[in-house]
Amino acid sequence: MIQRQFRRQKRYIDTTKDTQFSDAWIILGLILSIVGVAGNNGFFTAAGVALWIFAGVGWLWNQVSLAGLYYERDLSELRAFEGESIALTLRVRNQKLLPLTWLNIQDIFPPELPVRDLASIASSKSGQHKEMIVNPATNLAEFHSFWMPGAFQRLARTFTIDCSVRGYHDFGPAMLNTGDGFGFFSSKARLPGTQRLIVYPKIYSVAELQLPSKNPFGDVRATQSLFEDPLRTVGIREWQVWDSQRRVHWKATARHQQLLSRVYEPSEELQVQIFLNTTTFERHWHGYIPELQERAISVAGSLAALADEQRLPVGVIANGVLPGSDQPIR
Question: What structural domains and CATH numbers belong to the chain?
Answer without folding.
Answer: 69-200 (2.60.40.10), 206-217+270-329 (no CATH), 228-266 (no CATH)
